Amino acid sequence: MFSIIGITGRVGGGAASRLLGLGKQVRAVVRDEAKGHVWASKGASVAVADMTDGDDLGRAIAGSEAVFVMLPPLFDPSPGFPEAKGQIDSLSVALRQSDAKRIVALSTIGAHVTRPNLLNGLHMMEQSFRQLPMPVTFLRPGWFMENHAGDVSSAISEGIIHSYLQPIEHAIPMIATKDIGALAGTLLLESWSGKRVVELEAKTRVSSADIAATLTDILGKPIKAEPVPRARWEEVFRAQGMKNPTPRIQMIEGFNEGWIEFEAGFEGSVKGQTSLKTVLEEMVRDARKQAASA
Question: What does the alpha-carbon distance between residue 27 and residue 24 come to, in Å, rounded to a whole number?
Fold first, then answer.
């Protein structure tokens, strides 16, 4: 039995789909039973658990051969990351109780970095999970290509993408969530000892200029990438509702300045198969469907 914590997301769902496609038994761990119905219809068993209760979660994943685990995305953490710390503590209790043979934990590029930034919560997770008694793989993907859904919308409506990644020609490691889920499913089936890191990115690195050029091709009209002035970042993020934008700003600066990078570099990373164009084409289709139904 393979338990998936975070199955309602793109990555957890992708891992589950890969395992089910191979005929494996999958347990969907969800907070809300209704969200498990779609997975039950696909052949998975469903366990409902309070993700903040380590004992409850431990019972939900008991007897698992392997467990996929991830922290819920948190883009506006309180100072000191108390939300992440609470979730990590609960997960650590649950994983210890589960007696699972192995764990695959979704981490991130830059999780090894201690310099303050938004990714520190996943650094904390890795440090905690390194104390677990069973083998653990830390899957560290690059920047999600799907993070650029907002760029698709502005490209369609304005002919512009507003870029925080700067300079716009600076290429960084990116990856499609489809590839992350597929690799997570594969890793759950492997055997290894101790703790290991697997870093994942696309075959080529991606810049804002690349995104603009690809959208120009897809949309059939000129799309321009315009850098958002650094002096405006905090104002913009607070206007979007963020209470503590500093960690997000620090993370973006880390990508722009190059101190958020894979430990093993481009040469040491696993390469995904999904292209930037494929992901952007899908997001353009979705944006057009939403506009048509509005």
Answer: 10
